[in-house]
Amino acid sequence: MFATLSGVNPEPGKDGVPEAVSKIWERVRHLDFHTAFGAFKGQDIRTVNNEGPRETGGVKGRLLQSMKIYVEAMGWNAHSILEEKL
What we know:
The chain is built from 4 helices and 2 strands, in the order ααββαα. It is mostly helical. The protein has a domain at about 15-75. It is globular.
């Protein structure tokens, strides 16, 4: 199996995964949550007491940061989700 250039670095502005990631964020942005459950053992994430001083944003902030990392890793440097803030 070989990766093509278009599969590794998609053309910016083209419909695809970044829009799906943005839709997920749009749906959870207004929710207040402190726990996220993974599909497998050991993947659950919980907000802990010392997260306030660390300014991570808790589980919600870490979710947003993960979405940004994912979108940037796909080669999208100017997608709207990269401008999102808590």
